[in-house]
Amino acid sequence: MKLPCRKLVAFTFAAALLFLAPQLVPTTAKTNAVIEPQTRAQTRRPPKKAAIAKKPRINYSQFSHRTHVENQKLACDSCHKVPAKNWKDVRKGEAAFPDVSDFPEHSSCLNCHRQQFFARERPAPVICANCHVNNSPHDTSRFLFPSLGDVTDPLLKRREWLSEFGVAFPHDKHIDVVGLNLPGQSDSGRALFVNVALQEKKKDATPASCPICHQTYQPQGNSSEEYVTKPPKTLGDNFWLKKGTFKTIPNSHTVCFTCHNADSGIAPESKDCNVCHKLRTPDVNEKADFDPKLANDMGITDRVILASWSRRMSAGAFRHEGGEHPDLNCMSCHNVTTFNVLDAKTLKVPVRSCGGTEGCHVTATTDDGGSLNFEIDQKKKDQAFVCTKCHVAFGKENVPDNHQQAVPTPKPNVKAS
Q1: DSSP characters for 243-292?
Q2: Which residue of 17, 271, 333, 360 has the lowest C-beta tally within 10 Å?
Q3: Within 10 A of 110 (CB to CB), how many other CB atoms are there?
Q4: Which DSSP helix (H) or strand (E) runs through 111?
């Protein structure tokens, strides 16, 4: 048994030696063949793909009319129905009239937004927050529709928002048309909201149409309290916002649909939304005479005041109820024939209008009492002087050329011969 084992071991050793022999031979003893060094095969990494720009994530809780009108080319009536089903509910009795008084129905949105409506988002899909007060399947209450500015029910909530639209209202075409508020009826027997009559303008008097759309907001009247919020005891001559500073602007279709309705046939009809509502083009250079920090320090929270104040492009401190202003003809200051509501620059009040017939704020000389004269003189003496008679933010800037030009050039003294 031992002999075969020895032969097997010897055979195994010889085979191993034969296999390893080439590796044991010195390089100099090998043939002239070139021995390539053994290297590990390198794995090539695929080239990096160019970075693909990600599309910004859409926030479906912020509805955009611009996207739907400009990109999707949707007409207004593809979503809004005139009148809405609830027009008799939002205003009661004689105050009710056919209006766009509610958000579009779900069917208007589902054609394009089925994925967003059925998204697995808790407590409810975010797209629902555009219309619904509490984004929950257990609460179906909705915000007041934006055009219902005249509805003041405290139980109905209004969403804070900034409209993408401006209203292309032609003042020059309405100044002589909108007149007396007289109740009446149409030929069909249905009550009209307001019967419009022509009224001849009285000389040097405000046209009868202006107060129908523009009333003094929060007037002081006979109250002894003149400020909107309580000023500090150390106020002195410094500026603090007073009541009756602003005028209202229409916040609903109530006055508009008086004339523009199915019974009157006056174009544009109430269903022609796009005739009046135009998407605004933001002007990055547009500035208002408004200081949000100052408004915050004053504790101004009224949304109407803040909206009006933040759009004032001329004199941010001007008060419509102040001094002799209520007795002036509106058109003594406002040139409505050149108004383009979509272009804020055309709404600016000319500086010369502040002079008035008796030289109220612009006089021949500072000694005559003109406020503009005084502040221009102070600015010439000290560039750090801040004009506060009319301005809130603009008073820190240099005096504009049109302010200088508004001051009358003194006539030279002519000696009698």
Answers
A1: TT--B----BSTTHHHHSSTTT-PSSPTT-HHHHEEE----TT---S--H
A2: 17
A3: 12
A4: helix 106-117
Instruction: Cite the DSSP H helix spans in 352-415.
Output: 371-381, 401-406
Q: For residues 383 and 350, what is the distance between their CA atoms, to the nearest angstrom?
A: 24
C-alpha 121: how far from chain center: 29
Q: Give domain status of residue 150, yes or no.
A: yes
Going residue by residue through the chain (417 aa), what tens digit of pLDDT does each one get?
Answer: 444 555 555 555 555 544 544 454 444 444 444 445 555 555 666 666 666 667 788 999 999 999 999 999 999 999 999 999 999 999 999 999 999 999 999 999 998 999 999 998 888 899 999 999 988 878 889 999 999 999 988 888 998 878 899 999 999 888 877 754 333 434 433 334 343 333 344 445 566 788 889 999 999 999 999 999 999 999 988 899 999 999 999 999 999 998 998 888 899 999 999 999 999 887 878 899 999 999 999 999 999 999 999 999 989 999 999 998 998 888 889 998 889 999 988 999 999 889 887 888 999 888 899 999 999 999 999 999 999 999 999 999 999 999 999 998 876 665 655
Encode burial over 153-162: b for 16+ CB neighbours within 10 A, e otherwise.
eeeeebeeee
Flag whether 117 is in a domain. yes
Sign of the alpha-carbon torsion through 182, 187, 191, 196: negative
Q: Which two tokens stand for residue 67?
A: 């996207």
**Is residue 77 a part of any domain in this protein?**
yes
- Residues 6 or more apart whose CB falls under 8 angstroms from that of 264 comprise 186
In a domain, 143, yes or no: yes
Segments forming the whole domain that contains residue 146: 59-160
The strand pair at 191-195 and 277-279 is best described as unpaired
Distance in angstroms (rounded) separating the CA atoms of residues 115 and 109: 11
